Amino acid sequence: MFKQIEGSRAVAETVALCRPEVICAYPITPQTHIVEALGEMVKSGDLAGCEFVNVESEFGALSVAIGASAAGARTYTATASQGLLFMAEAVYNASGLGLPIVMTIGNRAIGAPINIWNDHSDSMSMRDAGWIQLFAETNQEAADLHIQAFRLAEELSCPVMVCMDGFILTHAYDRIDLATQEQVDGWLPPYEPQQVLDPANPVSIGAMVGPDAFSEVRYLAHHKQLRALERIPVLSREFHEAFGRDSGGLLRSYRTEGAETVVVALGSVNGTIQEAVDELRADGVPIGSISICSYRPFPLEEVQKALANAKRIVVLEKSLAVGLGGMLATDVQMAIAARPRRVYTVIAGLGGRAITKTSLVELFLKARRDALESVTFLDLNWDAITRELARETAVRRSGPIAENILKDLGELSSKIA
Amino acid sequence: MPFEQIKFYQTGTFTVGNRLLDLSDRTVQADITRSNALNSGHRACRGCGEALGARYAVDAAMRAANKNLIAVNATGCLEVFSTPYPETSWQVAWMHSLFGNASAVAAGVAAAMKAKGRKEVRVIAQGGDGGTADIGMGCLSGMFERNDDVLYICYDNEAYMNTGVQRSGTTPAAARTATTPSVGPEPGNTFGQGKSLPLIAMAHGIPYVATASVANLHDLEFKVEKATAIRGARYIHVHVPCPLGWGSEPQDTIKVARAAVESGLFPLFEAEFGDVTARTPIRHPQPVENYLKLQKRFAHLFRPVRDEVRLTAIQSIADRNIQRFGLFQEVAQ
Amino acid sequence: MQIRIHGRGGQGVVSAAEMLSIAAFLEGRFAQAFPSFGSERMGAPVMAFCRIDDQPIRSREPVMHPDALIIQDPTLLHQNSLFDGLDESGYVLINSTRDLKELGIESAVKDLPPGHVRTVPATELAIRYVGRPLPNGTLLGGFAAMTGVLKLESVVAAIRSKFPGKIGESNVAAAEAAYELVAKRDTREEVHV
Lengths: 417, 333, 193
Description:
The structure holds three protein chains of three kinds.
Chain A: E1 2-6, H1 7-17, E2 22-25, H2 32-44, E3 51-54, H3 58-70, E4 75-79, H4 81-86, H5 88-97, E5 102-107, H6 121-125, E6 132-135, H7 139-156, E7 160-165, E8 173-177, H8 181-187, E9 204-205, H9 214-243, E10 251-254, E11 261-266, H10 269-282, E12 287-292, E13 294-296, H11 300-306, E14 312-317, H12 328-335, E15 342-347, H13 357-368, E16 375-377, H14 382-394, H15 401-409
Parallel strand pairs in A: 2-3, 2-4, 4-5, 5-7, 6-7, 11-12, 11-14, 14-15, 15-16
Antiparallel strand pairs in A: 1-8, 6-13, 10-12
Chain B: H1 8-11, H2 49-64, E1 69-73, H3 77-82, E2 93-96, H4 102-115, E3 122-128, H5 129-134, H6 137-146, E4 151-156, H7 197-203, E5 208-213, H8 217-228, E6 234-239, H9 243-246, H10 253-263, E7 269-272, E8 275-279, H11 288-292, H12 308-325
Parallel strand pairs in B: 1-2, 1-3, 3-4, 4-6, 5-6
Antiparallel strand pairs in B: 5-7, 7-8
Chain C: E1 2-8, H1 13-26, E2 30-35, E3 45-53, E4 68-71, E5 91-95, H2 100-103, E6 117-120, H3 122-129, H4 136-147, H5 152-162, H6 165-184
Parallel strand pairs in C: 1-4, 4-5, 5-6
Antiparallel strand pairs in C: 1-3, 2-3
């Protein structure tokens, strides 16, 4: 059923349709609207058979989720940025124990400096913790991915993060086709745990594992993600058959046929990239793009295939491997290691800086001329950088960097981007 | 018929089972059909107070819950010595997550049981003083504040024992630990620090808070069974000597625990919704010295010279407890 | 079509954009609405954006080249960047009782086609019909009349869906009043109440 609603609301209503049994939540921008909506549904009775727990911290949130999931309940939570870091220990614990928790990440930058706007540094910080990470390109996909996430998580006994860009998706109103209860019930079976705390059949979960067995247990976690690579496309197809929509899967290619330059990115920026691709294609520029949905497990083979005919690759990412360059770019380079080509890393959109079609068009043309550095920071204010560096050179006590730059740039409230 | 607590001193023995009593009045351990939730074969040190306390507590909880029990354990001595890979000595549904989240994980288990309509399943969380008072404080307070249906049992051996006897938020004044060594002008743990978990629990107004000791195991069982029958957040704080960390003789564990109770340093009481409702009076008062002398962690108070100042200060802590909890008064019938 | 709404926190700028998108949705079109984001703070300048199209909307950048501006708070007019990127045949709707000269923006909008710059005393209308100085729904009525992009009945339905009950109805009345005001004059000058 079509509705014009906020992305967060669409996610909340879809999660509710998945019949969660325990939802726990700690507020953090920009996920608040999701958990508030779910809390209201539980409180009003619209979402029955579900316990909503108001926890005291994000660490508490994922810990409650761990207990609930281990006791056999379908469990959901959501967080972002600092909150994800605060629960970091529990993130590794959940995947290590193989608990099929589904968690929405409203992607937001990690401080310092404190920043509430969108980038991918949060989910990137946990990319190797053993969770499956799926990135939504649109609010429609964000909603649909949650249905697939529960099924994938419970099949594999592996927790799943559904990543959606904070504010850009979470707080945007879009035309969304929401599933019905019948559709979800027909596609998502009740949770059948692989392991469960049950007084009738007691087991010990979470024992210490020594050097003699730890590697094997970790290999099995690795193997789970490799199995996920096979299951994700299958589930996406089955979802399409049942719901009539395309969503999920490992990656999607856009106009890559005959594309000499291919842009790779995660999440909502792909929409703007596709607009830029269309504009350039209209001018005869052979360019295309790839939107990766399954970031973990990273689909090395599919990426390699999708980039088979590219002469050069531009990886546009909202994340920075400090001192090095890109994170997504590193994974992409691994995918094409057998036949390496030029990979231009473009760091863009950090801390919510808008990525405009105009900038992208200029960037892609520059890439096409091979006039880009291997690592580029898009739309960086070099004057401000130069001035701050000069300040630091001139005097020891140059003051907090963030404050200096903000003062330098003047009043920001009236700027658009 | 009101439950009458039978005290061992009346029979003149410390036996676990008194065959003159009905089975339901006897200690759980006297019952051959007990759960044996913490089975033998675990790797605890000899004389471990925590192993003793946990065995009694969990079997009592199992009896009271009709074996419908799920236990969540924090990282710590109990978790480590009871589940040495590839073995487990637990015969109850048991989970270990992290160090600071046992209360939150247990809250999650309780929420799951509620969502599934399984009212008969009870949940206990277990942790040491470190995992409860320090790193676990945030989650614990959250669990109390929400009144989650969990019984939290803290085994307090007054330091981070499993990692090598480091000071915790419940380490008593003057005690030597690896991070409060007995050197310098103020040897041992600093005076004026520390927190009382039972009082913190009471400040949350939860339905039931109690202290217990391995010096009085039947009393511990009684309190666990009483707590298991109550719904909502409950907390029991058990004093468990650690021979290794305290420097006491392994065979003295119960003796040391009793000295703590009888000196007033570890008061035994119960509280409901923030008010003390019962206390165990001290029948044979002992000066704190009798307790301190049994443990090498307090040796520096006696050698090379007696530290009268600190000994007096510790005695006044005990005296304050006696006054505050009315430990010299008769228990109202 | 791209619309940019300027106002201050607490004036319902975000809701206005959302209602525009709902109105477009009700007409069977695609629409996207989102705010320029920030921490909750009353009185701070805020912007919200709305895109309306007959195709699915892919772009996720803020509206850099608006076809229409709605200015809910005229105290923001001193910011030159307010009109940045406005299309040469764009629309400007300002919530004010003053005329363009008094507002000091005559030169900023002089090249826009006739009838594309209007003022509407939306706050006053809101006070009269709704009892509170929240001009957002009211302005949408004026917007519908000025641009013809959305039907009044769609705007009305959108207001009702966002604000059910009496609040919705009073907002609808204010929006209809604003619509009438803007529709009946078609000079370039502002409309006095």
